[in-house]
Design goal:
- The chain is built from 15 helices and 19 strands.
- By secondary structure, it is of the alpha/beta class.
- The protein folds into 2 domains: about 150 residues, Hotdog Thioesterase (Thiol Ester Dehydrase, Chain A); about 300 residues, 3-Layer(aba) Sandwich (Isopropylmalate Dehydrogenase).
- The strands form 3 sheets. The protein has an 11-stranded mixed beta sheet with strand order 11-10-9-12-19-18-13-14-17-15-16, sandwiched between helices. It has a 6-stranded mixed beta sheet with strand order 1-3-5-6-7-4, covered by helices on one side. A two-stranded antiparallel ribbon has the order 2-8.
- β9, α6 and β10 form a beta-alpha-beta unit.
- α5 packs parallel to α15, α6 packs across α15 and α8 packs parallel to α9.
- The longest helix has 27 residues.
- It is elongated, with a radius of gyration of 29 Å.
Length: about 475
Amino acid sequence: MDIVSSSLDTLENITFDEIKVGDSASLTRTVHREDIQLFAVVSGDVNPSHLDDQYARESHFGEVVAHGMLSGAIISALLGNQFPGPGTVYVAQNLSFKAAVHIGDALTVKLTCIRKIADSKHLVIACSVTNQEGILVVEGEAEVAAPLEKIRRTRAELPEVTVTDKQRRYEHLLSLSDGLPAIKVAVAHPCDAESLKGALQAMKEGLIIPVLVGPEARIRATAELIGESIEGMQLISTEHSVESAERAVALARAGEVDALMKGSLHTDELMSQVVNKLTGIRTARRISHVFVAEVPRYPRTLLITDAAINIQPDLADMVDIVQNAIDLAHAISIPLPRVALLSAVETINSKIPSTLVAAALCKMSDRGQIKGGQLDGPLAFDNAVSPFAARTKGIVSEVAGRADILVVPDLESGNMLAKQLEYLAGALLTGVVLGARVPIVLTSRADRAEARSASCAIVKRLVAHRLAAANKLEKK
């Protein structure tokens, strides 16, 4: 007899007396990368065969494989939940591992009672695990002390677990620029460990060719401190941070570099040179900043603007801020980005200026004054990112619940939102300034080297996108 679970919400056992030799039960479960990572966390088994893609590619498996005992744990789940179920006590186990389990494999566990031991009330159960192709991956036997009394319990509600795999998200951002040539980047004042490490890491990843602009003695001392060599790299020596910003911007103005990168100087020091009317690199477009965020619990890349440059933008500023973000979304392969214009509420209220600005921006988009995206607003944050919240509040929209771009009403709210995502939700943030002649890598001075390197990947992709668009126009 095949035993089938009667309810998803309730656990009910099968007693020793009820089970007959030949009775069986089965369970199918697909193995995800997160399952392997969580098993490694719980067990402490961090064998690179299970966690390191590069190592695994060079192993005889050719890719990451699951721990053998992950299959054993699924056997244990079927024993404890269903066959025999609650009250079962594991006594012994003998398993043979026949084939590797890969990410995406659908494993079917089958348990069959092959012997009943009357004196001890034990059951001997044959165990087999096959994958979706019918290949046997595990076989063996388990001996359990079977429950003697009927037990029926509500299934326990498990705590929610989020895997915050920053390395994988970092690699995803790097992959956006795969196959593109490295760009030349002037790095303004890289005089602390993280800013110099970020530039050198981006160079090692094949993203940039750095031009270091700053006090030579300090840069060399920092390189020695972090155990890196800068020999053979172009280094333009300056006296102080303001001169570093001036020289870096001058390189961009002269067309000698493709982008700028902020080092350990203040944002104001660099941006004041960027917007200088005589020597800067302004265009007709308003300059704005975009955080590109990889958030563990959000299913898509999220752009947040403007949280670093424009303090209290007016309607005209917001038009350029939105257009800059849409253009960046296009560059990173979001062809029709969904743009949520954030406020405290989702209805227009004359006492809340951001709701009026949002409504105006939506109408401007309808009339073609903003191009390339789907706009909706005002939207509260929950309505912008949660389909459940949007449905509950009766919002019918292509944008609500699945925004690609979040447009904040001012710098304060935007900066707090971005930093909360980073420090409380484990988001990986990259920062890019748009609207100037060249894009600018602009991250917080507290950001680690990975955030700076990933920002270079975004900028590299943006430079290539702009070049392709320019070539297309030339051919026309």
